[in-house]
Design a protein that fits this description.
By secondary structure, this protein is α/β, with parallel strands linked by helices. Helices cover about 35% and strands about 20% of the residues. The chain has 15 helices and 16 strands. The chain has helices at about 80-90, 95-110, 140-150, 180-190, 210-225, 235-245, 250-255, 275-285, 290-295, 305-310, 325-340, 350-355, 360-365, 400-405, 435-445; strands at about 5-15, 20-30, 30-35, 45-55, 55-60, 115-120, 155-160, 200-205, 230-235, 265-270, 285-290, 315, 380-385, 410-415, 420-425, 425-430. The strands form two sheets. Strands 3-2-1-4-13-14-15-16 form an eight-stranded mixed sheet. Strands 5-6-7-8-9-10-11-12 form an eight-stranded parallel sheet. Strand 8, helix 5 and strand 9 (about 230-235) form a beta-alpha-beta unit. Helix 2 runs antiparallel to helix 15 (about 435-445) and helix 11 packs across helix 12 (about 350-355). The longest helix is centred in the N-terminal third of the chain and has 17 residues, at about 95-110. It is globular and about 65 Å long. Bound molecules: zinc ion.
Length: about 450
Amino acid sequence: MPVTPVTYHAEHAWTGGTVASGVVIETAGERITAVRTGVAVPPPGAEVLRGLTLPGLANAHSHAFHRALRGIAQRGSGTFWTWRDSMYDVAGRLDPDTYLELARAVYAEMALAGITCVGEFHYLHHAPGGTPYADPNAMGEALIEAAAQAGIRITLLDACYLSSGFGAPPERHQLRFTDGDADAWAVRASALKERGHARIGAAVHSVRAVPAGQIAAVARWAADREAPLHAHLSEQPAENQACLAAHGRTPARLLADHGALGPRTSAVHATHLTGEDIGLLGDSRTTICMCPTTERDLADGIGPASGLARAGSPISLGSDSHAVVDLFEEARAVELDERLRTLRRGHWSAAALLRAATEDGHASLGWPEAGRIEAGAPADLTTVALDSVRTAGPPPSLGAETAVFAATAADVRHVVVGGRPVVRDGVHLLVRDVPGALSRTIARLTRP
Ligand SMILES: [Zn+2]
């Protein structure tokens, strides 16, 4: 079937690491075919994108069902571990139908926030009690379908989750997560099929959840397919202490010793690291996925992002538990947290943070061709208003600084994914009432 060429005229666009004005973006089907800057007048028939058009944003770490905890998790006090109990309550109520409904609404919220690709770190595999569904990938398939219906790309990072701690079997709530061993995990994960909007990757949930002797099998599965491999790493000091007690080495060292670090690997959080850990991650070019809004929400701490970047690690960003879904907030938090810690400003430029939110995020999810506005890249575009009450004032040449340090998800005006308009003038074109969809599905999954 011949593809119809579509031309966009971006008032301003982030291309080649700078803000250009009057940018013509020609597309055919899913791809950008040409980019021209300095074109003041929109060509006839061009779709006009008013504001600053960025490459689509990549949300590199998501657990869609955590969205149901928004608000609820802010009552009372506690720690990461008490928060986890509430999270397990919600997990216990989901089935493939309700997960499709919830994830469609969550991914629609992401699209409205300018996110065009999500990395779903998926471990809720089986029915309560651990019985596989008739299709053992019914839950993963629900997530892939949810992304299609919400109009965004997904990398399903199918997580191996076998134990509740070092040498400890899964607890009651975790029976839904486990396949028994890494070989059975691999058989199930191998049945997942990629399609236009969906790619498949692997995850080692954490060194707590995958026994050391089985980490290499998961890493090999990903290596054989040249697929992304993700792992939660050192989010909590207690994990480090337990790992040292069980194996006499840190979680980063354990992953390195079992072949799980490298340029296709993303370590999520990497909050509590030793100097040696930072060297291992940087030297291996492992990407670090920072999730600052979740890390502050769960009282995790502040990870050494700039030290990791200096050591050689690219940085990506994730909204993880969806305390908020706002990649601009994630991006600026990387810099602002470091200011609080060091009493100095200017560790991360807006350009470097945009790179994390776009190009490096996509690479971390196995879409290395995406995240740039250039010929040959997928036509994934996110336009941010520069005339909202939050973003008005600075000149367009400071569009990147304005977007990263002042814009919110509410300033996203248009979103195009694979050449298809998904959000226009702040309205989702495929899921008409996103707040309504979130309210209905979350009310059924949570106790008041
Ligand atoms: Zn996570």
